Amino acid sequence: AHGNAGRHRSGGTRLEAVAQQVADVLNVTLTSEEKKRLQQTTKVDPEGYNLYLQGIYYIKRLSYEDALKAIGFFDKALDRDPNYAPALTGKAWGIFNLGWSGAITMEKTVKEVSPILKKAISIDSNLSLAYSIYGWLSMNNDWNLNEAEKHFLKAYQIDPGDDIAISGLMFRYM
User: Quick check: 130 and 123 in contact, CB under 8 A?
Assistant: First the structure.
């Protein structure tokens, strides 16, 4: 799940206990960083989360029209909560896709996407997708492959299933 939106949950301590029980049953040893992440909880507006998921659906379709639809859903989620970090990251992804497709210049893309990503990461530094987008910006705008690699590896460290980070690393090493 991009951006780890699923870890934003309500219920706090009960869910933490369940997560620890599952780890115990599976005989998994959690690092202190993983334990810390499991203890972080954020109440999420269910309608905002639904709007976020609709945005993710459209953004993955990769067309200009769908990118605009996705941005619209992310904006609606942000209308409900301007600090909803996964929706901020989704909006940045949508704008990045517009730049990638040539619908807007990369200069405009960087100008719009960078502050959105900075805000999202300041709210939640465990959004793998935010780092993946930074990686693609570094690779495509600045041609700074080392910086891109750093961002992709950070994203992959947070979420080894982040296909945007994985594809970025593949392009980086080609």
Answer: no
Which H helix or E strand runs over 1? none
User: Following CA atoms 169, 149, 125, 71 in sequence, which dihedral angle do they give, to the nearest 10 degrees?
Assistant: -60
Extract the tokens encoding 130: 């935010």
Length of the chain: 174
User: What does the alpha-carbon distance between residue 149 and residue 135 come to, in Å, rounded to a whole number?
Assistant: 7
Place of tokens 């609709």: 54
**Helix or strand run (H / E) with residue 69:** helix 64-80
**b/e 88-115 (16+ beta carbons within 10 angstroms → b):** bbbbbbbbbbbbbeeebebeebbebbee
For the full predicted model, state whether its pTM sits above 0.90.
no
Outline where 81-144 has alpha helix (H): 85-101, 106-123, 128-137
Closest among 117, 78, 128 to 95, alpha carbons compared: 117
In the structure encoding, which two tokens stand for residue 61, read together? 């379709």
Q: pLDDT tens, 27-58? A: 666 666 666 665 666 677 889 999 999 999 99
Digit-coded pLDDT (tens) for 69-89: 999 999 999 999 999 999 999
